[in-house]
Specification:
This protein is mainly alpha-helical and 94 residues long. It has one domain (4-92). It contains five helices and no strands. It has helices spanning 4-20, 29-42, 47-63, 71-76, 89-92. The longest helix is centred in the first third of the chain and has 17 residues, at 4-20. It is globular and about 35 Å long. The N and C termini lie far apart (36 Å).
Length: 94
């Protein structure tokens, strides 16, 4: 059984993959919503990472528009993006 910390860690890893792998897109609703929210959070400080996450989410939602959730709902469901600042660290290395 996965803990909330395990799930957040897996989501962070997946977002990092999306940021660093050209053409990568979310695999499901949870990933897409977290990418969208994380993209908004990191965009001001890490615009490249923010754009990659937002674009990946937009690609997913183009085929599944009914799966886009409000930001508050993303947080309520536990699809936390509070670790999103870590995503921008990849931009510093580029």
């Amino acid at each position: 059984m996965s803990t909330a910390r395990d799930i957040e860690g897996a989501m962070l890893e997946r977002c990092l993959q999306i940021v660093t792998t050209p053409g990568a897109v979310p695999r499901d609703q949870a990933e897409a919503n977290v990418c969208r929210l994380a993209g908004m959070i990191v965009d001001g400080r890490y615009p490249v990472a923010g754009k990659r996450l937002s674009d990946a989410a937009a690609t997913y939602f183009a085929d599944h528009p009914e799966q886009q959730a409000p930001s508050a709902e993303v947080a309520r469901r536990g699809w936390s993006a509070c670790w999103a600042g870590k995503l921008g660290e990849t931009e510093d290395k580029e």
